[in-house]
Amino acid sequence: MRTSVGRLVAILGIGAALLTGCGGSGGTVSVPVVERPDETESVDDTVEATATEAVPTPSPYDTVQAQRFDRGRMWAFENLPTSYLRETHGFTPDEEWRTKARRGALRFGSGCSASFVSSKGLVMTNHHCAREHITDVRRDEEALLENGFYAASRGEERRASDLYVDQLVEAENVTGTVYGGLRQGREAEAQAREQRVQSLQEQLTAEASKRDSSLRVEIKALYQGARYTAYTYRRYEDVRLVMAPELQLGYFGGTEDNFTYPRYALDVAFFRVYTSAGDPLRPEHHFSWATEGAQPNESVFAVGHPGSTSRFEMRSQLEYQRDHELPRRLETLRTRGDLLETYIRSNPDSSDRYDLRNTYFSIENTIKGQTGQLRGLRDSYLLARRGAAVQALQDSIRAVDSLRQSYGTIVERIEGLQQSKVVMAEKAGAFATFANLELGSRILVRALHGYYYDFLRTRGAPPDRLEAIREDAEQVTNWPAGLEKEFLVAQFEEIRAAYGADHPTVQRLFKTRTPGGVADRLVEESALMDSTQFLNLLDEGYRKSDDPSVPVIEALAPMFLNTNRQMQDVRASERTLNARLSRARLSIYGTTFPPDATRSLRLSDGRVRSYSYNGTTAPPFTTFHGLYNQYFSHAEEAWALPSRWVTAVDSVDLDTPLNLVSTVDISGGSSGSALLNEDLEVVGVVFDSNMEALPNEYLYRRTGARAVAVDGRGILEALRTVYEADRLVEEITTGTGPEG
After folding, report:
1. Which H or E run contains 521?
2. 638: exposed, middle or buried (C-beta count within 10 Å: 0-12, 13-18, 19+)?
3. DSSP secondary structure letter of residue 79
4. CA dist., res. 251 & res. 638, Å (int)
5. Which of 393, 390, 444 is nearest to 415 (CA)?
6. Residue 77 in contact with residue 171, Cβ under 8 Å?
7. Cα–Cα distance between 556 and 544 in angstroms, integer?
8. What is the rounded distance in angstroms from the CA atom of residue 361 to the CA atom of residue 659?
């Protein structure tokens, strides 16, 4: 889902997206470990420890120390831990295995993962990753989300206009190029690095495009900027919908079941990649299907593009998130979610026309996920373990003169920056949705474009920079007037609460009017309610017009840009220090642990495992018995089944596994990752985690934390029995299938 205005956000440095461990030789040593009973796992373990996550006493946790996998198991392909994989899973991935794993995996659009699952370009991902594209291909009077879609022949497959998939071709370490000749240690280092990364990325993409126009390069900062890797992707832009179940199956259980287990969702969808000649792509590598599925305690691997984690942050940084950033973000999300829910309930037809339900689902998903993360940050044991890792690092730095001189004060300096962020937190939080298309006002987003476009034009900015802003403005779509008013009022009230009613800009904005009164006038009179009128106004000179939005943005834009810049300056200093500390960490510990997730390709290993919760045991697999039991036991809409599923109850093999859980390490962006066995055969597709896994954003723990996947056997059973998708089943299971 597109959550922010791309190039304007990048130009201004706006953080607008809300939705979703010594010796002097430079050798590596292990982080000191004192195991907590619920974290132990021997190489041959087949039973998960059952201790609960209750916080122990005494609260200081003086004996807590960091543990081996605190930073997780999202291994970068360019640095796979072969010895660890051999010891833990009994095999060593050779070059052929690595190549197949890399080339079979895909990035799906702007936020999910996927994989090739046939020699004819068939792509598997999640239904929730495909929702906006399912809506995109619908025709008049069709309700594809409600009724599902299946192309019985190749000619019926429908191209999704804005969808692409990316396949990783190669990865190159460019750390030396990024840092070469750069004055390190100064506060502006982060901006200088980022500018150099952008320039290098453009250069490498231009060079790659000369070889193949489908290639593009992305440079990712790893280990908080201590390392940089240039990833070359091949992009496929002709991607067509093949099959998607009904929303009711893809989102079975609704918001209430999200981030829970046991689950019974068929969260899967299939697409096909086509060549420029209009033929199905014949990928060199794809994942075959393990029709027998996975077994309890079997080794499994998720190959995908996890979005982000925060496992290298200092305790003080996590405390800032706990006390300031996350609570404010959740308050904003709940406000917008409530407004959307009310509008959708009262205006179902308009909501479908503007695709508001997908936005609402994303907000609710984010609220539940970040609530779980906040709960984790309030766990004193989690923070104690992060603090222990920092202490171990500091001890190692202080033990070596050269390290102490270069890095000895960094932790304290990072702690000091958190106080600067606290001072600005409330005012910065008031503008959190200002440039956000899902959570902000359309009028204000367009007004910000107009304000900045005119600002650049009057200062003689080059045409390509102006065109970039205009192209961004063209992406701001219309939506209902009633919803626009509510979002405007919410934005105005948040600004007034943060800055105070006596603030000069607040008084200038409202004078004797209320936020509702200002919003009413804008919705009724502003040309910025309509995309075409706004673009005309942009060309004519927005800030010189008499549009009622002009005095509003003239008041708010300087306040917003000033607040945003102050916070960005602090964060830039923080990024500089984070990178320096990570360089120290790498010099001490080496790359024995994976970098944080960065939307780059990762391999995560684990096992299919049950776990203890609420005094009982969650099974490793759920079955169609449970799906129908939920349907017959609940009257709520969330557990309703479409008529074809009710009719098929006597035909479905109810013993077939439908969902499964494993200990693979995932994060947002992992959705749609193929879950594979040792032979790189599909046993499922990852779609969620349970609540116990949400604090893994900050510290990886396996006890009770699980990744939830749709079982490959359940997918085949549904395709055969409910959807009669024989053509698709044959292609998946045999690699052949009919040509038409």
Report:
1. helix 515-525
2. middle
3. G
4. 8
5. 390
6. yes
7. 17
8. 21
Bridge-based pairing state of the strands 681-689 and 288-289: parallel
CA–CA dist 283, 167 (Å, integer) = 10
Q: Which two tokens stand for residue 81?
A: 């831990």
Q: Cβ atoms within 10 A of the Cβ of 560, count?
A: 23
Return the bridge partners of 603, or none. 75, 303
Closest CA to 571 of 420, 412, 409, 370: 420
Q: Give yes or no for a contact between 312 and 618, defined as CB atoms under 8 angstroms apart.
A: no
Q: Which residues contact 8 (CB under 8 A, 6 or more apart)?
A: 14, 435, 448, 449, 452, 469, 472
Residues near 52 by beta carbon (within 8 Å), at least 6 away in sequence: 38, 612, 704
Q: Spell out the residues 6+ positions from residue 382 whose beta carbon is closer than 8 angstroms to its own.
A: 376, 695, 698, 699, 701
What is residue 56's predicted lDDT score, i.e. its pLDDT?
A: 37
396: its two tokens? 């190692």
Q: What would the DSSP string read from start to end of 625-662?
A: HHHHHHHHH--SGGG---HHHHHGGGTS-TTSEEEEEE
Whether the CB-CB separation of 641 and 631 falls below 8 Å is answered with yes
Pairing of strands 299-304, 158-159: unpaired
How far apart are the C-alpha atoms of 14 and 192, rounded to whole Å? 17
Pairing between strand 616-618 and 681-689? unpaired
How far apart are the C-alpha atoms of 121 and 255, rounded to whole Å? 33
> What residues contact residue 229 under an 8 Å CB cut-off, 6+ apart?
76, 78, 171, 172, 173, 174, 219, 220, 222, 600
Contact at 8 Å (CB) between 214 and 591?
no
189 alpha carbon, distance to own chain's centre: 27
Per-residue pLDDT of 630-639, as tens digits, reads 999 998 899 9
φ, ψ at 111 (rounded to 5°):
-150, 0
Rg over alpha carbons for the chain, rounded to the nearest Å, is 26
Q: Count the residues in the chain.
A: 740
The whole-angstrom separation of Cα 308 and Cα 599 is 7
Dihedral, CA atoms, 438, 439, 443, 446, nearest 10 degrees?
Answer: -60
Q: How confident is the model at residue 394, as a pLDDT?
A: 95
Low-confidence ranges of the chain (pLDDT < 70): 1-63, 184-187, 737-740
Least Cα distance to 239 among 150, 341, 124 occurs for 124
* Nearest in space to 566 (alpha carbons), one of 663, 422, 702: 422
Query: Residue 739: what pLDDT?
Result: 63
Distance between CA atoms of 567 and 424, rounded to whole angstroms? 7
Residue 588 in tokens: 């001490």
Burial 335-355 (b: 16+ CB within 10 A, else e): bbbebbeebbeebeebbbebb
Convert the pLDDT of each residue in 574-627 to its tens digit: 999 999 999 999 999 998 899 999 999 999 999 999 999 889 999 999 999 999
**What predicted TM-score, i.e. pTM, was given to this entire model?**
0.87
Q: How far is CA 6 from CA 203, 362, 434, in A?
A: 20, 19, 13
